């Protein structure tokens, strides 16, 4: 490996670590402080970096929020895409446990982002929208004979999936809740 390539790799690694530190500091602050009250100075202090370094990576705290928010949505969408078929054909208990296992690495970030009260960055609504989008496509593609309109079935199923995931985040795996969710799936798409 030539010297120029090594320098580029080191610079890329430093940029990656700096952005990661700023994002982690932001999440840490969101645990104890309302988004509106967090300043760039607060973020830099917790991340052990300067304001000028912050501005090399982000325009402002809204830009940072947008990047963190979009990353969580992208990751969630990949998991939903990967897990949806098993969610609809297997039992929800196993599927929710698999969802949970994949999301647990992001639990801290997700829970604090759920609390942010900025309309265009409502992570709960965005997660529900992602689930609804994939469910609607699944229901339509598989031409399921649903007892109700596909939009209503989609909203109900997405609501159950989201609330069970949310419950699991807050309380851990709850077998009674998962059994209940499985009964809902059976009633919704198998009766």
UniProtKB/TrEMBL annotation:
Domain HTH tetR-type: 16-76
DNA-binding found in the keyword field: yes
InterPro entries linked to this entry: Homeodomain-like_sf, HTH-type_Tx_Regulator, HTH_TetR
A GO term for molecular function: DNA binding
Alphabetic keyword roster: DNA-binding
Residue spans binding DNA: 39-58
PROSITE patterns associated with the record: HTH_TETR_2
Protein name: Transcriptional regulator
């Amino acid at each position: 490996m030539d010297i120029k390539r090594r320098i580029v790799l080191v610079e890329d690694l430093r940029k990656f670590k700096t952005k990661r530190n700023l994002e982690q500091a932001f999440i840490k602050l969101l645990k104890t402080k309302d988004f509106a009250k967090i300043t760039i100075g607060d973020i830099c202090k917790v991340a052990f970096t300067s304001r000028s370094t912050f501005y090399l990576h982000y325009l402002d705290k809204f830009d940072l929020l947008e990047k963190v928010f979009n990353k969580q949505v992208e990751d969630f969408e990949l998991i939903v895409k990967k897990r949806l078929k098993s969610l609809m054909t297997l039992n929800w208990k196993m599927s929710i446990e698999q969802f949970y296992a994949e999301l647990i690495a992001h639990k801290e970030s997700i829970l604090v982002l759920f609390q942010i009260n900025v309309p265009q960055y409502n992570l709960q609504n965005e997660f529900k929208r992602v689930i609804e989008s994939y469910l609607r496509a699944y229901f339509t593609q598989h031409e399921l004979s649903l007892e109700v309109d596909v939009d209503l079935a989609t909203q109900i199923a997405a609501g159950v999936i989201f609330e069970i995931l949310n419950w699991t985040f807050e309380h851990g795996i709850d077998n009674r809740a998962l059994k209940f969710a499985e009964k809902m799936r059976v009633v919704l798409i198998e009766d």
